[in-house]
Amino acid sequence: MNETLGAVLDWVAILCILAGAMLSLVAGVGLIRLPDLLSRMHAAAKPQVLGLVLVLVGIDIRLIPVETNVFNVGTLVLVALFQMATIPVAGHITARVGYRTGRIEEGLMARDELAERLEADEAAAGDRGGDGAAR
Amino acid sequence: MTRPRKRKRAGLTALRRRVGKVQVPVALGMTLVWMLLFKGFQPRWESLGLLVLGFLVSVLIMVLFPMPPITPMPRFHPVHLVRLVLYVLAEMVVASFQVTVIIFTRRQAPSSVVAVRMRTDSDLTMVCTAIAASIIPGTLIVEVNRSERVLYVHMLGVGDDEAVERGRRDIWKLERRFVMALGTHEDIAALRAGGPEALDEQETREGGERP
Predict the structure, then answer these.
(1) String of b and e for B37-56 (b: at least 16 CB within 10 Å)?
(2) Which positions, given as ranges, span the membrane (chain B) (predicted)?
(3) Three-state secondary structure readout of chain B
(4) Distance CA A13, CA A5 (A)
(5) What does the pLDDT look like over A37-88, one tens digit per residue?
(6) What's the CA gap between A64 and A21, in Å, rounded?
(7) Residue A72: which of B39, B93, B115 has the nearest Cβ?
(8) Whole-prediction pTM value?
(9) In three state form, how does the secondary structure of B141-176 look?
């Protein structure tokens, strides 16, 4: 009975790790195939998060019956947690810089509400900017 | 002789002020991370020492590197918290497949940057919503306008108006779940009072009363 349970857990772990690896592969393919920076950010940051989490879950399942002295389930939870906390920050900064320096393909942008907003801001700043230049 | 002593006293009051600013719940959260790092969740005597040591280290970090306090402190609603986590996980799986399909079928996928106005007035909710939207595939935060509470979200594969509205509603749904799980009573009441349109009306009404 215990052996069958172990075998089932093994298979679940294998499937999780395999699915995670596939998602990371998809992320890599997306990096090449997608047209511009913002779209590529989606591929780079996202399927890879789920991929990593799946790999970690797979390792978790294998780890529960085994006692190692290097790391345990808690460590893996921390890895997932920090990955989820840091990826949005890095993604946001990259997207922001990319957008502000104009590294986007406007032809693919169906609707851009930020551009409208920035133009309005710039027009307002232009009025004030005249004073600034005079000073 | 008096000057060093005076300086010492000023240093002491500054230290006391900093210690007073330590937020205990935040310190407890850091202690939790410490326990996870050092395998503190095992029934043995060392775990107790780890707990105390972790708390002391957390307080020390917060005294040495003070951060702006989290106000108001979140209230945890366990049931809604579990539902929130499950919802985000489900969205991650579904949206991962959508992004995968886009990657393999369409070379020139359209995308949009959509402005989403938050319905509640708390920084914490806004940050959490932004983080969750970043983790869920297909949405990416390009720009945040804190004073007006607007998130500018880049959405992959969103071309027409209908899809834009659907994406906007998804972000609102995310926000609603975060408010239900972490928000204060006022936030939840504000959310219950109605959708974004109702809240806008309310704001203009309040703004009209104030002056």
Answers:
(1) eebbeeeeeeeeebeebbbe
(2) 21-41, 47-65, 85-104, 124-142
(3) CHHHHHHHHHHHHHHHHHHHHCCHHHHHHHHHHHHHHCCCCCCCCHHHHHHHHHHHHHHHHHHHCCCCCCCCCCCCCHHHHHHHHHHHHHHHHHHHHHHHHHHHHCCCCCEEEEEEECCCCCHHHHHHHHHHHHHCCCEEEEEEECCCCEEEEEEECCCCHHHHHHHHHHHHHHHHHHHHHHCCHHHHHHHHCCCHHHHHHHHHHHHHHCC
(4) 12
(5) 878 887 777 667 888 888 888 888 877 766 665 667 778 888 888 888 888 8
(6) 21
(7) B39
(8) 0.73
(9) EEEEECCCCEEEEEEECCCCHHHHHHHHHHHHHHHH
Q: Are A92 and B135 in contact (CB under 8 A)?
A: no
Question: Which of A71, A111, A119 to probe by mutation at the B interface, max B CB count within 10 Å?
Answer: A111
Element of type H or E holding A112: strand A109-112
Q: What is the dihedral of CA A29, B93, A49, B83, to 10 degrees?
A: 170
DSSP A67: -
CA distance B33 to B139: 29
When scoring A32, A34, A78, A100 by the number of chain B Cβ atoms within 10 A, the one with the most, hence best to mutate, is A34
pLDDT in tens, B164-187: 888 888 888 888 888 888 877 777
- Would you say B174 and B132 are in contact if contact means Cβ atoms under 8 Å apart? yes
What are the boundaries of each domain within chain A? 2-134
- Token match 């913002």: residue? A38
In this predicted structure, which of A119-123, B100-104, B158-162 has the lowest mean pLDDT? A119-123
Q: Which chain B residue has its CA at the smallest distance from A77's CA? A: B36
Tracing tokens 């085994």 back to the chain, one arrives at A66
Strand partners, B175: none
CA distance A59 to A9: 11
Chain B contact set for A72 (CB, 8 A): 39
